[in-house]
């Protein structure tokens, strides 16, 4: 039976969690960490260190490789997920992680619940998990930084961007917490704009999306970077712009965002806007 992220997190004991966190700390400097480093770091015997490494491997929280005659470990995305879940539960942010409600090339989103039983969206970033060959080039990501570290940095970037945009009255889900590669936010019950065929006031919806992009760029120094009908959730007639891990200050990305969303509204709803005027507005020039 395949274990869920919650199952794996629940099965970790304290020393296994600390060992996994240590492997992640080392990931920026070395891809694989020798088991001997766990022994010296935590004062374990050879047998104890082997038990810890075997348990982490069986739970698929690390991968193993024999390097220069010594077993060495590397944390997996499942390991990163497990650390995030344990931390969020310990901090009383999340009480329960339920079913997967969305999955893409770079993330999986779970329905969760707070300790007040309010529904949450819990997004786990997994940058580079699938064949996403041009990700580094498209996003200007460092060549030598491991994907697992980029996932934690992308989660932090998404949380900070959401927080800034929300504080400045942009239409985004309210962010609640960030841990490792996970972002916890308000659960928006709705459907992607891409699936919407009718709107009572499409111009008003478009204006709201552009206003949110303006807030991000002017107040937070970030362009969304991947804005399209797939990254807008409609709750009735109100749009919420989602998926901000790649957000950064980039005028070319901003222009692409504006052109993408204008093109969609033109084709789907017959709304025609001057791209130059819309771009000037979003840049805070009009």
CATH topology of the largest domain: Phosphorylase Kinase, domain 1
Structural class based on helices, strands and sheet pairing:
alpha+beta
Overall mean pLDDT stands at 93
In N-to-C order, the SSE pattern is HHEHHEEHEEEHHEEEHEEHH
Could you give a short account of the major beta sheet?
5 strands, antiparallel
Gyration radius (Cα, Å) is: 21 Å
Helix percentage range: 40-55%
Number of domains: 3
**Total count of strands:** 11
Name of the CATH class of the largest domain? Alpha Beta
Q: Give the uncertain stretches in residue-range form.
A: none
Q: For the record, give the distance between the C-alpha atoms at the N and C termini, rounded to a whole number.
A: 58 Å
Shape: elongated
Number of helices: 10
Strands ordered across the widest β-sheet: 4-5-6-8-7
What share of residues are in beta strands?
15-25%
In CATH, the homologous superfamily of the largest domain goes by the name Phosphorylase Kinase, domain 1
Q: Write the CATH architecture name of the largest domain.
A: 2-Layer Sandwich
Strand and helix layout:
Elements: H1 5-11, H2 14-26, E1 33-34, H3 35-42, H4 46-58, E2 62-67, E3 70-75, H5 77-90, E4 96-103, E5 107-113, E6 119-125, H6 135-139, H7 147-167, E7 175-179, E8 182-186, E9 191-192, H8 202-220, E10 232-235, E11 238-241, H9 251-269, H10 275-282
Antiparallel strand pairs: 1-3, 2-3, 4-5, 5-6, 6-8, 7-8, 9-10, 10-11
Helix pairs in contact: 1-5, 2-4, 3-4, 8-9, 9-10
